[in-house]
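Give me the 3D structure for mRNA capping enzyme C-terminal domain-containing protein.
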Amino acid sequence: MDDENDGRGMLFLHERGKKKLMESYSLEFRGDCPPASYCGKIVECSWDKDKKVWIAMRIKLDKNTPNDTRTALRVIKSINDNITEEVLLDEIKKNYPSSNVHSYGHTIR
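Predicted structure for mRNA capping enzyme C-terminal domain-containing protein (109 residues):
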């Protein structure tokens, strides 16, 4: 993550071992932590669907390289697919009608 002038950050990923700017995505900072403290760090983010922007959550101290571009694009696709627990359980029940499906400790038949 690098800082921009408008209070948002630029998002970088790895592609073939090199840093790649994700030009179509921006990073927004919320809360008390100053944006400059994230500069050059690996940042865990969440996606704000309404604003279509990544939100910086925390600095990842356990990583020294950002995600690969392919990994990030798969995560973005998964978020956009928006498969909820209800959708998943319905599909399981439809495709495996004789099985018991467990959800948060409850058996669903």
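The chain has a mean pLDDT of 82. Let me know if you want a second pass.
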